[in-house]
What does this fold into?
Amino acid sequence: MADWDLRLGWIIPSWNTVNEYEVERLTPPDASHHFMRIAHTEDTPAAFDRMGAEAPAAADLLAHAKMDAICYACTAGSFYRGLQYDRTLAKQLAERTGRPVVTMAHSLIDGARALGMQRIAVAAPYESWLMDLLVKFLEEAGLKVLNSANMGHQANVLYPPSKAVELAQRAWHSDADGLIMSCGNFRTLEAIDEIEELLGKPVVTSIQASFWALFHETGTPLERDGAGVLLRGGAVAAEAHPPAA
It folds into this structure.
């Protein structure tokens, strides 16, 4: 039996049933993942505000178990208020716990940059108001959104991976460097390789990118099959690919 050399923490919305499912399937035997839930049963600005206010206490409890790094794992829960809020929240949690902290939202950006993406297509199951905020967030980070597609309601976990394939094809733009698929409660893991084959370009998803970001943050080498080029070792240093103007 392998020793647990790496402990990684996740702060997730209470209604999420996909994050643990996908992370468990990606995890190598020498790492362990530990999850804290915050009450969240609807996507509204007020609900996201409440999650952000309760995140420090959740991070404290993960720090008790000596996590090597922590992910704030609600994508919309930090992008809804823009890039500065996302960065400030991560910094506050890191300073409070003494641990590196990544957000699911910024992991999408870092994963895209690490794969050399500048011009992107974007897909998410969100309602239109939230999709608009996602596009704004990504463009604020310097990525150029060429096309986007969404599904229009909040019951994201009801969709099978085949819906991710359909949504990716609707969102795609032939001039894009790759596709970003946002939402940590939307099943994409089983679909990533199929989508990359269909598009001929890389795909970055919320859970896949956050998984990569946690390992990257701790300096731990990681290569996993079945989850796209990002986890197959296709990513290079993010700073080598500055965002588009």
About this structure: The domain at 115-205 is CATH 3.40.50.12500 (Rossmann fold).
